[in-house]
Amino acid sequence: MRRTKNEAMETRSAILDAAELTFFENGVSRTTLAMIAQAASVTRGAIYFHFANKNALFEAMLERGRLPQECFVGLDELMAAADPLDRIRANAIEALEFISLNTRTQKILTIMLLRCEYVAEMEEMLVRMRDADEEMLGTIRFAFQEASRRGLMAEDWTPDSATTTLHCGMAGLINQWLRSGFGFDLVAVGRRMVDSLFDSFRAPPTPA
């Protein structure tokens, strides 16, 4: 009997759910398509109908979840912001709040950061993730450049050094939170870190 479009979409969704769970529990390198098929109660042929290989399945799984990089605004909104430092600071905190509340994003980040070795067929995914990071970092760097142009940046900071410091701080915080099994309040700790960084980034008030 020929499957309907809705049935095909349901099967695809079930495969992605099973892949997410199996990658999370076993790690990407130790997960086989046969294991995913069993978890989804489908055949391997059904997986190949929807996905060319494990790499394509992994990529589709990532696309289902919103990642922290996507919380940052675009260049047009930054240009219109009254204070680009306040805007990018708010984005950083919004990203932490989103991660703390979104179970799927937490699981996907755990898979990406702690359950995956980016070698062999997965090396291509590392390149794509770096490209996504670079797009986000370009937006953040632009915000700091605009802040510097408006005289809002402290003299000790350049747009490049501020971008790198913020990125490393956020990445390290999220990674440690995941490694600790959510062992601390991500938003509370993150807010203090972000506020401290942006206090340092901002030029002191001009004396009256």
What would your notes on this structure say?
With 208 residues, the chain is mostly helical. It is built from ten helices and no strands. It has helices at residues 5-26, 33-40, 44-50, 54-64, 75-80, 84-101, 103-114, 123-149, 159-179, 186-201. α9 packs antiparallel against α10 (186-201). The longest helix has 27 residues, at 123-149.
Give a quick set of tags describing it.
208 residues; Tetracycline Repressor, domain 2; 2 domains; single chain; elongated; Arc Repressor Mutant, subunit A; mainly alpha
CATH C-level of the largest domain: Mainly Alpha
Q: Structural class, from helix and strand content?
A: mainly alpha
How many domains comprise the coordinates? 2
CATH superfamily of the largest domain: Tetracycline Repressor, domain 2
Order of helices and strands: HHHHHHHHHH
CATH topology of the largest domain: Tetracycline Repressor, domain 2
Overall radius of gyration: 21 Å
- Give the tally of β-strands: 0
Report the biggest beta sheet as strand number plus sense, adding barrel if it closes.
none
Give the CA-based shape: elongated
Helix content: over 70%
What is the average of the pLDDT values?
88
Q: Kindly report the oligomeric state of this protein.
A: single chain
Protein name: HTH tetR-type domain-containing protein
Organism: Aureimonas ureilytica
Domain HTH tetR-type: 9-69
GO molecular function: DNA-binding transcription factor activity; transcription cis-regulatory region binding
In short:
The chain is mainly α. It folds into two domains: 5-63, Homeodomain-like (Arc Repressor Mutant, subunit A), CATH 1.10.10; 65-201, Tetracycline Repressor, domain 2, CATH 1.10.357.10.
